[in-house]
Amino acid sequence: MNLTQSQLAKYMDHTLLKADATLDGIDRVVAEAKQFGCASVCVNPFWVPYVARLLDGSGVATCTVVGFPLGASSTASKVFETTDAIANGADEIDMVINIGELKAGHAELVREDIRAVAEATHAGGKLLKVIIECCLLTDDEKRLACLLCAEAGADFVKTSTGFSTGGATVADVTLMRECVGPDFGVKAAGGIRTLADAYAMIEAGASRLGVSAAASILAELDE
Questions:
Q1: Count of CA atoms in the C-beta half-sphere (13 A) of 2
Q2: Which of 22, 131, 132, 194 could bridge to 145 as Cys pair (CB 3.0-4.6 Å)?
Q3: pLDDT of residue 222
Q4: What is the rounded CA–CA span in Å between residue 125 and residue 27?
């Protein structure tokens, strides 16, 4: 694979979700995303109004997280987080599924949890990515989660929060792409730190990458 810097940047959600993120870190990520032309900047909800103002007119979207990182919030709270984030300027929502309920076999509850957030997101004309936290699931559970995301009206299925026991793997991205078909979004996130990592995920079927190291990955193309 041989992408230009601008082509690769368009795959990237430049991400800063650490609990101890400060204004300096947010400013750095926003500046880097604007410099390279990333797809979005992904931050915790507190930072959405500030980031949306900085990114206005730049062509870089403002992304935030809902039910993060555990997914065990009530559906009502996830919907509130979504509508609040959109009102504050978010363009994209990355929600976490109810992982325990998926593993318990309560597929209908998981589907309706996603559907409620999808409806709230799309009512605002925005994009929904659904984090299934692959590291906690069996392959059959991953397949079910992908099916539920598609049935519930999400736009993307996403591998990981980056806050659990593992991040994106080529095997998981391949499985997810096979499950959702060629036209559904697949986001790989967690542990993507090098150009080789990024290329491997794209070749496996990822259409978006969640990365905190966007600048250093893109700099590898200049070396």
A1: 0
A2: 132
A3: 84
A4: 26
We report the CATH number of the domain holding residue 130 as: 3.20.20.70
CB atoms within 10 A of CB 87: 11
* 197 in a structural domain: yes
Residue 202, in any domain of the structure: yes
Average of pLDDT values for 89-108?
Answer: 98
Q: What is the mean pLDDT of residues 71-85?
A: 98
The set of catalytic residues is 94, 158, 187
Q: What does the angle CA 5 – CA 10 – CA 14 come to, to the nearest 5 degrees?
A: 95
Scored b (16 or more CB within 10 A) or e, 195-211 reads bebbebbbebbbbbbbb
Q: Is there a domain that residue 2 lies in?
A: no
> What's the pLDDT tens digit per position in 116-174?
999 999 999 999 999 999 999 999 999 999 999 999 999 999 999 999 999 999 999 99
DSSP secondary structure letters along 85-143:
HHHTT-SEEEEEP-HHHHHTT-HHHHHHHHHHHHHHHHHTT-EEEEE--GGGS-HHHHH
Range of the domain at 208: 7-222
DSSP category for residue 60: P
Give the separation between CA 166 and CA 160, rounded to whole angstroms: 8
